[in-house]
Amino acid sequence: MTERNDRGKEAAGASMNPPLQMVRLSDSRRCNAGCSYCPSRDFSIGRRLSLAELERVVDFFVAYTNGVRRKPRSLSFVFNTLGEMSLAADNLIGLADCIERVNGGGRCAVPVYLFLASTNLLDAPDGLVEFVNRYGYVTVSLHGRPAAEYAPRIARFDERVTLEGTDVIPRHHMDLLERYGEILRHFHIAAMRPVREPPMTAADSALWVEEIAELTRRLDALSDEALAGFLTRLSFGDTLLNALMLLDRGARLHYRCHAGVSSLQVTPEMEFYPCTFLQHPDLRMGDIERGLDLAWHRRFEALRRAGARPECAACGILDVCGGPCLDWARKDPTGDRFLSPAECLYRRGLFRTAAAFLERIKRRPRVIEAVRRHCGLGTQDRQPKAKGEGRCSEC
Ligand code: SF4
Ligand code: SF4
Predict the structure, then answer these.
(1) What is the pTM of this model?
(2) What is the tally of structural domains in the chain?
């Protein structure tokens, strides 16, 4: 009787658990790219998860989703190898089949999706190329390397595949417009965001704000056609476009990002962390054996709510900023591990620059008309004010 009561309480408790929308998965820490921001750089290579283990992770989160009362609209798995994709081609293809079976058999209460992120394509085997041709989207982390280096590799993909080149803005002066142009000569769309390598400093933030301001001044000088052409080739994860979209929508973010709130990262050790970049022991949110640490999850939710910090509650850009990035906070030696003064400087400068640029773009109807089709910019009059969680444009 007691056991039955306990089981009843457990089931009732589980139904109150928070819904999860996105699970990032990495099956390996192996990498031959060595990007400076990657959390796997400091780990020994270790083993690679088998397909059976990855299927266990899928089963775990499908069961979790079926058990919660407040359902997410969908459950997405983002396969992110943090390194050389080619090593994991069989896992990727097997995972896609697994998710197809989950959907086909109606095993999850909500639709389940698989996305692919952080492909470096340094040595993609034919099997992976075929898979990506069906999949239709590839993100390549350039990390300061010449985009031309990737030309022969990405030429192997079908022309219908969308190729996104992402890069970091370094700590020394860079002509951003030129770098975007170089990426766009080889990729369909581009994204750039500041490099995140410790220590993050106020001097770096000031440099990045000045460079982004200079970029917008140079963009102002372009013809309507050229400016529209540029903006429509930015990815939604691009720092500038992301800021323009948030401002234009009049966003009111409840959280800066989904990390630790409705999304998490499953590492190759099958441990749970809030995000790909936050693999610190004190932020561990459970593992596949013991399950999700819900006490931690609740603490995290409170900690990350927009305005939870007094600095944020008093900040003029809270609605569009949503609060600090914990990864940045942990890399800023002047911060307190949960808020980075250097990041605040950057975010305030970024949104100030983007707001002024947005006003200037809106005075160019032909540009707005073209950009609206790409990302909805300029449709704010017809949309309700957006509420919710932010999309991370940093990782
Ligand atoms: S800029 Fe800083 S203080 Fe302002 S909302 Fe963002 S994280 Fe909070
Ligand atoms: S904003 Fe920071 S904490 Fe949030 S997902 Fe991006 S890197 Fe992680």
Answers:
(1) 0.90
(2) 1
